[in-house]
Amino acid sequence: MAQRAPTAPASAPVPSAAPAPSAAPAVRECGAHAARPLELFCDDCGRCVCALCPALGPHRGHRARLLPHAARDKQELMALCLKDLEERKKQEIDNRRAVEQAAIDLKARAIMSKRQLSDKVTEIQLLLREEESLAKSFIDEKTEHALEAHEQQMESCREKLGALETFSYRIRQIQQQSDPIQLLQDCTEIEKEMQEHRSVVEQWHPIPLSFEHIINHYKHLMAALQSILQKPLEVRLKKDIFSSLNATAKREPGTVLKTVSSVDRLLLLKHARSPTWEYDSLHPRLKLSDDRLVVSCNWRRIFYPCGPQRFDKLWQVLSRDAFFSGSHYWEVDVLHAGAGWWIGAAYPSIGRKGDSETCRLGWNRASWCIKRFDIEYWAFHNGERIPIVTEDDPERIGIFLDYEAGILSFYNVTDGMAHLHTFRCKFTEPVYPALRLWEGSIGTCKLT
């Protein structure tokens, strides 16, 4: 024993591999062989063992490696795992971004689809109004022709009635003759004419002009439309081969915002108006052209009469023309209006004095407008604002009002007919075109 004592340290681990003082000594010793240090790693069992375990202990025949080699391999394995985890994290981040972008694109497509739907519904309404006008014109034309014929017939009746009255008077005169010779002579002269008047009298029965076939035509049209619309929308879309084609699937994200199905401008021009601006509502820093079509800023205050209709704080003006029924379309030129303007419509009840919300165009229930501020465009009504996405800055704005349908739509008509925004409400007062300026000028385009 005295000779073997000095050799024991030779097989013990080097001091540098000793555990930290805080580690328990039992962790560093073999559980199968007392006092034997852990020097190897059993790959089959995944445990640290002493040098005797693979030869004499429970790990006999197992694959074993020195601890440093096994630790290095495990570190390399964990490094690969960390690399894979980073790649997976990156992929999950990309996936999240893709889903977020898909959600943004979906919202944008939904907004644009609703705008396109509004355009199509507006176009249908315009076509129906045009059809109504054509049908009424047809009725008027047929009625006019029938009335002309009836007037001619009544004139003929009046002429015949006059002739009969004259002849009756002549017969009475002869009948009252006291001289029988004269009576017989005069009666003989008119006897042939008297025989003619004793023939069968014609009775006229005017055939009433019926428009039932026109009404029936539109009843059938309405029934056909109802038979289509009574089916659920999803059922109709499944049968429509065009609805299964996704026109935006092949486009890059975001390009859908530039795709607008616009209303035919020719349909709107059938309701064209050229409203002029009201002198009595003009702010003192604004001035009118001689034809009252152009409103421009004037940096020197003009001393207008201070009436109740005049805006005294906000650089605003209303039109002279009020629309209280029907469809109307007008255009304004904003090319020289600078980077801040408001275009819209208002009730006559909008406030005129001060700069509170009751007077501001678009900030109350009595007005609607689209606003440009620098490079941003917004739709305003009752203080609520909605952003407007437009590819190009408009130089000419088209405004369409359908009073009964409660529609006020704005279009960029600079190059084509791009829909900007549509307000929907029930109009209760006359609607006046309105504008507000910061600089430059805005002009009504002469369409009529």
TrEMBL record:
Cross-referenced InterPro entries: B30.2/SPRY, B30.2/SPRY_sf, Butyrophylin_SPRY, ConA-like_dom_sf, E3_ubiq-ligase_TRIM/RNF, PRY, SPRY_dom, SPRY_PRY_TRIM14
Pfam families: PRY, SPRY, zf-B_box
B box-type domain location: 30-67
Keywords recorded for this protein, A-Z: Metal-binding, Zinc, Zinc-finger
Top-level taxon: Eukaryota
Record has Zinc-finger as a keyword: yes
Annotated Gene3D superfamilies: 2.60.120.920, Classic Zinc Finger
SMART domains (UniProt xref): BBOX, PRY, SPRY
Region of interest: Disordered: 1-22
Domain B30.2/SPRY stretches: 255-448
Name of protein: Tripartite motif-containing protein 14
